[in-house]
């Protein structure tokens, strides 16, 4: 089974491209995901995970996700490789998004995101709703 669930903050606005073969939209962005544990005397560490969202989900992400916003992503890990013009092999590991959600509380969201919620409501696919908030790891069931 290949299933990934991430929650983190966008490190930049999603970047949109279109495939050359059939003009399919693909949005790419990176999430800063905090590590669960902090060593005493050190700052909290984060992992920076590359995310790719295709077609309608990519359009949703590019339209409503902004740098610094906290989001939830459910997807799968994918690896790929290619040779560049100089014959050097490159390897990439990324998460292909299958679902995307808002994870900021309503008071933390900017005007653009709250306008979306006011227009479409919290039941729109891709919206986790404004009441999803974990105040500490003690609130987690595992």
Number of separate strands: 6
| CATH class category name | Mainly Beta
H-E string = EEEEHEEH
- Describe the main β-sheet briefly: 5 strands, mixed, barrel
Describe this structure in words.
This protein has helices at 55-64, 111-120; strands at residues 4-10, 15-18, 25-34, 46-54, 70-83, 89-102. By secondary structure, it is mainly beta. It has one domain: Nucleic acid-binding proteins (OB fold (Dihydrolipoamide Acetyltransferase, E2P)). It has a five-stranded mixed barrel. It is globular. It starts with a strand and ends in a 22-residue tail after the last helix.
Brief descriptors of the model:
single chain, 142 residues, mainly beta, OB fold (Dihydrolipoamide Acetyltransferase, E2P), five-stranded mixed β-barrel, globular
Question: Topology of this structure?
Answer:
Elements (H helix, E strand, L loop, with lengths): L3 E7 L4 E4 L6 E10 L11 E9 H10 L5 E14 L5 E14 L8 H10 L22
Parallel strand pairs: 4-6
Antiparallel strand pairs: 1-3, 1-5, 2-3, 3-4, 5-6
In short:
The chain is 14% helix and 41% strand.
């Amino acid at each position: 089974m290949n299933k990934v669930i991430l929650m983190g903050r966008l490190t930049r606005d999603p970047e949109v491209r279109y495939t050359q073969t059939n003009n399919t939209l693909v949005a790419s962005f990176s999430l800063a995901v905090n590590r669960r544990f902090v060593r005493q005397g050190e700052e909290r560490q984060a992992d920076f995970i590359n995310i790719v969202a295709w077609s309608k989900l990519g359009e949703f992400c590019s339209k409503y996700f902004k740098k610094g916003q906290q989001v939830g992503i459910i997807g799968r890990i994918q690896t790929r490789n290619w040779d560049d013009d100089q014959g050097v092999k490159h390897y990439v590991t990324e998460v292909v998004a299958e679902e995307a959600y808002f994870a900021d509380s309503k008071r933390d969201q900017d005007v653009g995101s709250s306008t979306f919620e006011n227009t479409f409501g919290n039941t729109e696919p891709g919206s986790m709703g404004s009441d999803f908030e974990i105040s500490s790891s003690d609130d987690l069931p595992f």
